[in-house]
Specification:
398 residues; alpha/beta; Rossmann fold; 8-stranded mixed sheet; 5-stranded parallel sheet; 35% helix; elongated; binds ligand PMT
Length: 398
């Protein structure tokens, strides 16, 4: 299956936590993203989930016991050698202790000790165990050695208590795997990229606002695609979409708030991509209290004043990419905006289309560059559109 993890060799270590059942979904998502996944399990893990499950999901026999008859000799070394990344999810408190102290008495700790690949650990345990000084000391020791922790999340635990100790969702773990592998070999590794997403909300009164149909999907897809190529991404967003793992999200509402957030975020950035639908106007005087229909009679007029043009006002030594949302004369209008906003690239999309633009999973765009170049893309998923935009950005950065 092709995807952002195409051909990457991953080793997934599964240890004996009740959360081991989530490792099945995690494995499935990794395989769907294109990865080749070898699973190493501890005997305790096999109490919670069968090796057969992983064999079915990966098409490869999981590794449970290095003394297993028929196993190639130094199987853990072979696993460790070919791994691009190792991930232990769920990681129990005792597996963390074994890792911290270099014990190697099961396939997971053995492989972890033998690999040079980046190691991600996603803990799962009761909150008191997570907070115990011994566990925290093991975590600190492992982090000092470059191990990256993903979670744990706070929430309801198997014991019925609430607290920090839950395995983070498989989707989030996959995001962190993509981000880490991107940083290892992505063509945007080391780059800082700021992306804006969603439609701004301009207050009419404490209850009502003016906005538009932007869902934020295009901006989020750009943030994820940039992360997957190793960039450090800040997403300035009005949208309520789930935050992509490994991406810093700055929540804003109005154009004024977005301007302030973008000014802050672009300091030291290499790229700014303005995918947000920023309102050009806002109510001149938002009412302090909810406007009462009884007071206003049959007509309510709301005078509007101009908002700052963020893509114009924010400038700097970064590659600026803007969008053009048009319903007519797409190329003419986009070309004018490209020049007016001093951008290197403009991504033009016809938002009157029903199968593209606002809220859809796909988009149909034309990329214009400051040198007069034009690239017409067919209807593609917004993640693919993002990849094509980032290809152009990467070329500009070289
Ligand atoms: O969010 P989705 O539902 O996925 O939909 C995606 C999208 C259609 C919103 C996206 O592809 C898109 O076209 N985003 C830009 C929408 C927009 O505001 O375009 P515009 O032509 O009105 O503005 C041109 C550019 O100037 C944009 O980069 C915009 O961010 C920027 N701008 C606009 C107004 C303003 N006051 N400040 C700005 O910076």
């Amino acid at each position: 299956m092709s995807g952002p993890l195409d051909g990457r060799h991953l080793v997934l270590g599964v240890t004996g936590s009740i959360a081991a059942y989530k490792a099945a979904e995690l494995t499935s998502r990794l395989v769907q993203a294109g990865a080749i996944v070898d699973v190493a399990m501890t005997a305790h893990a096999a109490e919670f989930i069968t090796p057969l499950t992983f064999r079915a999901l990966t098409g490869r026999a999981p590794y449970l016991d290095m003394f297993r008859d028929g196993a190639e000799g130094e199987v853990h070394v072979e696993l460790a050698r070919r791994a691009d990344l190792m991930l232990i999810a769920p990681a129990t408190a005792s597996s963390m202790a074994r890792l911290a102290h270099g014990l190697a008495d099961d396939m997971v700790s053995l492989t972890a000790l033998a690999t040079q690949a980046p190691l991600l650990v996603a803990p799962a345990m009761d909150s008191q165990m997570w907070e115990h000084p011994a566990t925290q000391a093991n975590r600190a020791l492992l982090e000092q050695r470059g191990v990256q922790f993903v979670g744990p999340a706070a929430g309801r635990l198997a014991s019925g208590r609430r607290g920090a100790g839950r395995l983070v969702e498989p989707e989030t773990i996959v995001d962190f795997v993509k981000a880490r592998l991107g940083r290892e070999r992505g063509d945007l590794a080391g780059r800082r990229i700021v992306v804006t997403a969603g439609g701004t909300r301009e207050a009419v009164d404490p209850v009502r606002y003016l906005s538009n149909r932007s869902s934020g999907k295009q901006g989020y897809a750009l943030a994820e695609a940039a992360r997957d190529r190793g960039a450090q991404v800040t997403l300035v967003s009005t949208a309520a979409l789930p935050a992509p793992g490994g991406v810093t999200v700055v929540a804003v509402e109005s154009a004024a708030e977005m301007l302030a957030a973008v000014r802050e975020a672009v300091r030291g950035a290499d790229v700014l991509i303005m995918a947000a639908a920023v309102a050009d106007y806002r109510p001149a005087e938002p009412a302090e209290q909810k406007i009462k229909r009884a007071d206003m009679g049959s007509e309510l007029s709301v005078p509007l004043v101009e908002n700052p043009d963020i893509s114009k006002e924010v400038d700097g030594p970064f590659v600026k990419v803007v969008f053009a949302a048009e319903t007519q004369d797409l190329i003419t209008n986009a070309t004018k905006k490209l020049v007016a906003k001093g951008a290197k690239l403009i991504v033009a999309n016809d938002v009157s289309a029903t199968d593209a633009g606002f809220a859809s999973d796909d988009n149909r765009v034309t990329i214009l560059d400051a040198e007069g170049g034009r690239e017409d893309l067919p209807l593609l998923p917004k993640y693919e559109v993002s990849g094509r935009i980032l290809d152009r950005v990467a070329a500009l950065l070289r």
